[in-house]
Amino acid sequence: MIRFLELREKLLSANFSALCLYGNDVWVKRRALSNVLEAYGVEDDGFGVDRPEQPTLEDLKLACFTPAMFAPKKIVVCEQSFFPERKDDGYGDKAKADSKKINELRQGLTELLSHADGSFCVVFFADSDKNYLGIDGLETVDCNKLDKGNVVKWIIAFARRQGVQIDAVCADKIASYCLSDMSRVAVETQKLIDHGDVTEEAVEMLVHKDTEYAIYDLSSAVSAKNAKRALEIYRNLVARGEEPRALFALIYNFYRRVYYVKTSSFSAEEIAGYLGVKPASVGFARDVADRYKPMQLRRALDFLAAADARIKAFADDGEVMNILIMQLISL
Predict the structure, then answer these.
(1) pLDDT band for position 228 (50/70/90)?
(2) What Å distances lie between residue 247 and 73, 113, 266, 314, CA to CA?
(3) E strand residue ranges, 4-150
(4) Is 252 helix (H, G, I), strand (E, B) or coil?
(5) Angle at Cα 275 formed by Cα 235 and Cα 187, nearest 5°?
(6) pTM value > 0.85
(7) What is the dihedral sign for C-alpha 287, 290, 291, 293?
(8) Looking at the chain, which terminus has fewer C-beta neighbours within 10 angstroms, N or C?
(9) What is the CA radius of gyration of the chain?
(10) Listed residue (136, 76, 73) closest to 108, CA to CA
């Protein structure tokens, strides 16, 4: 198995006949495919890349052994599932039939790759590597969402390849402001590179902070009892078009998450799964939770519930938010 961040280096020294890009991050899979095309000198212009839809094994063989036009190597990309899903009809017959079909396809792929002569590379997209393990000539690439540490490494390496230096502090800020969402990280990093020297000031000025990060930033100012900073963050959010009522909902949800993290013994990954949020969101909540006692957070939830009642009674949203921020600071 190859990790996504290792793929570029591996492609420099290996001539792969088949790769399975598996995981839960579409951006990472697409970037991995771009790395494959770049490494093998293939343009995605319709001549060197073939994308058969729901290919059979015979379709795959035909695509692989049809020479590429104007390209040094044929890249065959299967973005849809190549293997059938194992389904149980209650009697086990359907599951057995699917398992038999999967085994036949695995054997067929093994035979196909045994005749690989370096003229082609098959790239499979998949949610899991389960059906692709143990096939001779096929390597799997982990394309799951990157954790923050790996996002920081990617930012630094991406900038270095373009002749720009980004230090770890700036890279960490970019990752945090984008919640480690690689589609956003890539856009914001390129924007900074195009701007020129990447400094902390440039990051603060140019990188658009995810609203969820801004709520964390606001809550951090509140927990530090910095009223000026907290109100400034809130007013900046409103100035950029955020509705006070929507911001209230985000703050309410954030403090509920903070209380849950404070009073729970589950791990960050478990909490993220239970709440249906990103692990980064749990990290933000844990950071704020460490600054409070459970009873303080219980009072914070009481303040939020009272503010919710006032908003539902058609009180002025902006006034309610200003009062709420000051109440939270008073904890």
Answers:
(1) very high
(2) 52, 55, 27, 16
(3) 18-22, 49-50, 74-78, 120-126, 138-142
(4) helix
(5) 55
(6) no
(7) positive
(8) N
(9) 25
(10) 136
Tokens of 123: 């790239």
Place of tokens 């000198």: 41
Q: Does the pLDDT of residue 13 top 90, yes or no? A: no
251-291 per-position pLDDT tens digit: 999 999 999 999 988 887 788 888 877 777 788 899 999 99
What local confidence, expressed as pLDDT, does residue 93 receive?
Answer: 53
In this structure, are residues 148 and 124 in contact, taking their beta carbons and an 8 Å threshold? no
Q: Judge whether 218 and 251 are in contact, CB under 8 Å.
A: yes
pLDDT of residue 95: 58
Among residues 258, 261, 255, 263, the alpha carbon closest in space to that of 306 is found at 255
Residues 6+ apart with CB under 8 A from 45: none
**Under DSSP, is residue 62 helix (H, G, I), strand (E, B) or coil?**
helix
CB 155 within 8 A of CB 35: no
What CA–CA distances, in Å, run from 73 to 31, 48, 50, 109, 118?
19, 7, 11, 19, 8
- ∠ Cα 198 169 28 (to 5°): 80
Calpha distance 259→255 (Å, rounded): 6
SS3 label, residue 202: helix
Strand (E) or helix (H) holding 254 = helix 244-263
Maximum CA pair distance of the chain?
Answer: 73
Cβ(42)–Cβ(48) below 8 Å: yes
Give yes or no for a contact between 138 and 20, defined as CB atoms under 8 angstroms apart: yes
The pLDDT tens digits for 60-113 are: 999 999 888 888 899 999 998 888 876 554 555 555 667 888 899 999 999 999
Share of the chain above pLDDT 90, in %: 67
